[in-house]
Structure formats: structure tokens, C-alpha cells
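Q: Here's a chain of 337 amino acids. Please give me its 3D structure as C-alpha cells.
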Amino acid sequence: MPRTAELRPYAARVAATAIGLAAVLSLAACASDAPLSDPAPASHKPSGWASPAPRGVVTISEANRILDHYQNVNNRANATRDAQVLGTVEAGQLYARSKAEFEQFKTLSEKDQKDYGKPFTFTDRTFYLPAGGDWFAALATTTGTTRTLMVFEKSHATNNTWKKVISLFPDRALPPVQTSGGVARTAPVHTTVGALAPDGAAAAVEDLFATGGTKQGDVFPRTSDNVKSILKTYKERGKNLGPQAKVSFFPTTPGHERVYTLRTRAGVLTITPLAHNQESLVLQQGLQITPGEVGSVYDKSPRPLTVDVFQGEALLLLPEQGRPDILDYRYAQTNSR
């Protein structure tokens, strides 16, 4: 069965449950790798004319203020578990996970409940500012040596307000990103890098859950810690229910489908949304499944089929040579029916 781990805000690693400033980097969304527009056709440029240097979507000062605002509002929302307040600064996959934490608060241990609302601060900040667009990213320390990679977006999907949509926790330093004029290079999401295209990363990760990696997930090395963790979830998926039921994973559409990339010397870093359903079905007539503690938050009625809904995101490294790897992945159960 999938591992169970509760996520307090931006601290602990989560998998599916069962029953100062550094060098500028850049993340890029679908089709965001188009070249900057040229303000004047070549035939009309005066002698000595030079294209203006690309500028970030926000300044470092503005990014700091946005992150400060998020930090303050998030701390206030966590203290009272107010999803409406949190929704003013979060959206997308992250907000889906955060709301689930609030909904499942009573399933936490007494200690975790006590610790949940403790305020946190972002220190050692590095901002990743692409040239134009509607998003930026940041890397910061939250507790101890824990580093979180965040993406903020201001688009129609976020009600045209800067909101945090991604929060990941890679346990290793990210490879250096190629830059030009202080702006990091990005990669088209549809272009294959080595063995995988960025927009195919989600299907490859979800295949590890669905088939044990016999299809798209076959591109991943079995020596990777995160790959081994997911395969353990796959192999133990029906352990709790025994031979009287069948447990399967089915990829679904994420709530926020945007994919982000950044180019390194050896390949492309990709942030992708994830989503799947975990379906548990009895194999003998007359039997029913009683949902576990988390599933009962949404529907505690015994039934022959339970469908647990998961939303998440992942960070992958797609090298030009060699096999892709999963640097981090996060899920939260967001519903059960």
C-alpha cells in the first residue's frame, strides 16, 4: 500500500496514502520558451541600435515583497486552518494539498496538531525570474536545512493575483542553470530531452503507480530513491485488504495542468503536476470496504468500491544523456467517494 506521511506546512515529505540571493534561474511554462519579441524589424533599426536586455517579470525587491506577503498570510491561515484566507495566496496543486491538510487535521497526532500552526519564515532566498511571462520561482530555507522550491503565478488561473502554486523539497542541490544576460534559458515542453519530453513527465511518473513502470515509467532507473519509493507503493498497494479486494491506480487530470522547465548544461529540470485515483474493489459479492481514517473524512460509509483522489506535483531532471530521475514528488488525498 502507499506510504502514509502527513505534511505540515512546507516541512515533511508526502507520498500517496492508502487505506541572500544566488544566481538567477528560471522555470518555464508551456510555450514560454518563445524568443523575446524584437521591438523593430532589422531593416528599420538605426545604426548602432541594440535590442534591450531581457527583464524579469518582477524585480527582486518585488519578489521579496510577494514572498513576505505569502509567508504572513500563510502563517495566519495555518493558525486557524482558514482555507478561504489561504486561498488568497495559494492556487493550483499546492492549494489542493493545503486544503486537504486542513480537512484532515483531526487525523493528525496530538503532537502534530500542536505543531501545525507554528509560524515559519523563509530565509536564504534565491529568486528565479524569467524574462516576462506571468510567473516566477524562489528557493528558500524554512526550517533547519530544509529547502523548498516554490513557483508563484499571476494568471487567469490565479485570478490575476500573485499566488503560490508549487512547493517542492528536493533533497539535493539543483544543477546550475544556463543563463543569458541574467535570465535563465528555458526549454519547450513538447521537445524530447534524452528519453523524455517535459510534457510527458507526469505520465511517466504516474505509470510507476499504475503498472509498476512497465510502460512510460520504464525510462526511470530502478536505483533512484524516489522511484524505489513509488514502486514500493505499487507492490504493496493491496497489502492491507488482502486477496479479497483489488487495489489499482489510474492517472487522472491534475487540477492545474501547467508544466514548468529550466535548462541546465546537461539537460532540463521539469516541474509537472500529478494526479491519480486509487480504486479499491472487493472481489466477492456481499463484502464491503470500510474507509480508513483519512478517507472517512470525505465518506465514511462502507461500500464495495472506494475511489480515493490524489493531487500532487513532481520535480524531475531530464538529462540529454542517461535516464531521467525524480528529484521530489508530493501528493495529498483530496477526496474519497
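Q: Can you summarize the key feature?
A: Confidence is low (pLDDT under 50) at residues 1-43.
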